[in-house]
Amino acid sequence: MPSRRPPAAGDIRVELLPPLPQLIGRDGGRRAYVDVEYRDGETVQDFLLRLGAAYPELSAQLWDHERQELRQPIEVAVNGAVLGIHHELDSLLRVGDAILLVPQYQGG
């Protein structure tokens, strides 16, 4: 069951919506939360690269390492706003920020 407790002081909470939790070894049918230690001066990109280093399967879906950019299948939001609205990859994170990773759904 995902933890709904607040993150520890100094942590940034990452929420992954289904089926993304399977990329971090969790049940892919449920949302999952990961609390990651905040590092002063870290940008969104730095943080996501560090998160990916801890979870290689997530990194493979999240990053195009050759082009040094995000891949399209996962949308990233910081404090509820997708990148490009209030934050960019080079935006600094603050203690208590929240990251949301959402799979992009395509249909026809």
Overview features:
single chain; 108 residues; alpha+beta; Ubiquitin-like (UB roll); two-stranded antiparallel ribbon; 7 strands; 27% strand
Strand content: 25-35%
The N- and C-terminal alpha carbons lie at a distance of 33 Å
Please give the CATH architecture.
Roll
Mean pLDDT across every amino acid position: 89
Task: Give the tally of structural domains.
Answer: 1
C-alpha Rg (nearest Å)? 13 Å
Number of strands: 7
Kindly state the percentage of residues in helix: 10-25%
Structural class: alpha+beta
Main β-sheet, spatial strand arrangement = 2-1-7-5-6
Taken from the alpha-carbon principal axes, the silhouette is globular
How would you name the CATH homologous superfamily?
Beta-grasp domain
The CATH topology is: Ubiquitin-like (UB roll)
The number of helical segments is: 2
CATH class: Alpha Beta
Largest sheet: 5 strands, mixed
Q: What's the order of the H and E elements?
A: EEHHEEEEE
